[in-house]
Design brief:
The protein is mostly beta strands. The protein has strands at about 5-10, 15-25, 35-45, 55-60, 70-75. The protein has one domain (about 5-75): Beta Barrel (OB fold (Dihydrolipoamide Acetyltransferase, E2P)), CATH 2.40.50. It has a 5-stranded mixed beta barrel. A hairpin with a 4-residue loop joins strand 1 and strand 2.
Length: about 80
């Protein structure tokens, strides 16, 4: 089963490439304070219709290019 993640489109670069940001909650090992980090993924967009700000679900797939290993499954 492929990994499935939900995130927000941060930018578009090229015709079929978008950058998706996923908020990850972490806890500091010593101080136990919670903080949020954004992990960015380069994602392949087959249709090319996604816009910045859309919330999308992505899954891991075979390497499409040097940095793209994810594709958009659906807009939510």
């Amino acid at each position: 089963m492929a990994k499935q993640i939900t995130g927000t489109i941060l930018s578009k670069s090229g015709e079929h490439t978008v950058t998706v940001g996923v908020d990850v909650m972490k806890i500091h090992p010593r101080y136990k304070k919670r903080y949020t980090r954004v992990t960015k993924y380069h994602v392949h967009d087959f249709s090319g219709t996604s816009q910045v700000g859309d919330v999308v679900t992505i899954i891991e797939t075979r390497p499409i290019s040097k940095t793209k290993k994810w594709i958009i499954v659906e807009k939510t």
